[in-house]
Amino acid sequence: EQLLAAPEAGFMLADSARRIGDSLIDVMPLIIEVTEAARAADDLPVLCDALNLQGVLLLERGHGQAAERAWCDLVIVATAADNPQYVARASNNLGVSATVNMRLETAIASFQRAVTAYLRLGYARGLAQSHQNLAIVFLEMDQAQDAHTHFELAVTFARTADCMDDVARAEQELALLMLYNGEDMQRAVETVRQALDRFAQLRQPAGTAEAMRVLGVVEMARGAREEADVSLQSALNIARDLKLPDFHTFAVPVTE
User: Fold this and answer.
1) What is the largest CA-CA distance in the chain?
2) Separation between Cα atoms, residue 123 and residue 128, nearest integer Å
3) According to the model, what pLDDT value does residue 180 have?
4) pLDDT block averages, 10 residues each, the chain of length 256
């Protein structure tokens, strides 16, 4: 009750418990109560935080429609509060949920709304991530040219933000797109090797494994079987060491 009298403290407890995986705290009921307490107190910043986290928790538990309701509520609250940061977060997450459920036109509209909000904020990393999400959806729809455009924009904005991990992720997906389009295979190899170099510099083995997988696929497509086998085996070894799940190209919800 003391936490709910100060909704910000309740939110911080819920957020921290989720991040560290504290099994002693049932985060879902807590964040619901924090949401209602913040709404009653007209504490819009905490209400926005709580609604976003509530949506993420619901999506993680497989309740996609309930997550979308929380994020739609967040769009309404954030728009009324003239808070483009939360409009962007909610729009991105609505796009992710729509992508999961293969409602691709809805996903595009949501990611485009996120782009508009991030442009207003001048937040380059958010723009990079939203453009990459758009590229992934367009690729799913076999709209290769639109996908290519948005991957290139993702790289540009990620470089502007000096977020080399986002640059690397966009580069490896761009290399796959070059393969699917039948473009210059040597350029595709060079592009994914750039991603590999970035992940190595950042010491991100999971990213290295994914880029190695992409390199193996490209090498195989251009007939370099030995190089492909080496790359794919390296990717598999890293994935096993890190106990990574199967590789997938996928958009990810944001909490911050």
Assistant:
1) 66
2) 9
3) 86
4) 72 82 72 92 92 90 90 93 90 90 94 94 94 94 93 94 93 91 90 94 90 93 91 90 62 58
The pTM for the full model equals: 0.74
Please answer whether residues 71 and 94 qualify as being in contact, where contact means their C-beta atoms are separated by less than 8 angstroms: yes
Q: Which residues lie closer than 8 Å to 184 by C-beta, 6 or more apart? A: 178
Query: Rounded CA gap, 148 and 181, in Å?
Result: 10
Residue type, 58: L
Question: 34-43 long-range contacts, Cβ below 8 Å, gap at least 24?
Answer: 34/3, 34/4, 34/7, 34/10, 37/4, 37/5, 37/7, 37/10, 38/7, 38/11, 41/7, 43/7, 43/8
In terms of C-beta density within 10 A (0-12 exposed, 13-18 middle, 19 or more buried), how is residue 29 classed? exposed
The answer to whether residues 92 and 110 touch, using CB atoms and an 8 Å cutoff, is: yes
Per-residue confidence (pLDDT) for residue 47, from 0 to 100 = 94
Dist. CA 221–CA 248, nearest whole Å: 19
Q: How far is CA 146 from CA 24, 66, 99, 174, in A?
A: 47, 31, 16, 12
Provide the token pair at 146. 């639109």
